[in-house]
């Protein structure tokens, strides 16, 4: 079994997973995503304002996950679909996030490629479908 995320823990992360809600540090002005107790940039800010991220960004890096390298929660997907791409996206607001890429272009993924967040099923655990964001070419 993979990394277990309890239903209460998952529900606490719904704003980030469903609406891409981050926080802007009132000390340094940088955007933290996912939200933190202390700003990960200045390590001094602990007051924040909520900010909904646009979901637009560019591919900073990527890899292809093959069936044997898939985390257990994605083993079924890897079995049904084979390998799948995972990207590190630099959002236009600054944070970098990791997510699957859906509908990759036939010509291949490129660094700097514009992408946009889309709301999708991530996996199912304990009979609950876990939704969240993935990215697709913009």
From TrEMBL:
Domain called ChsH2 rubredoxin-like zinc ribbon: residue spans: 14-47
Domain ChsH2 C-terminal OB-fold: 50-120
UniProt xrefs under SUPFAM superfamilies: Nucleic acid-binding proteins
Classification via Gene3D superfamilies: 6.10.30.10
One Pfam family cited in the UniProt record for this chain: zf-ChsH2
Domain of life: Bacteria
PANTHER family hit by this protein: BLR3430 PROTEIN (PTHR34075)
Name of this chain's protein: DUF35 domain-containing protein
Organism listed in the record: Desulfofundulus australicus DSM 11792
Lineage: Bacteria, Bacillati, Bacillota, Clostridia, Eubacteriales
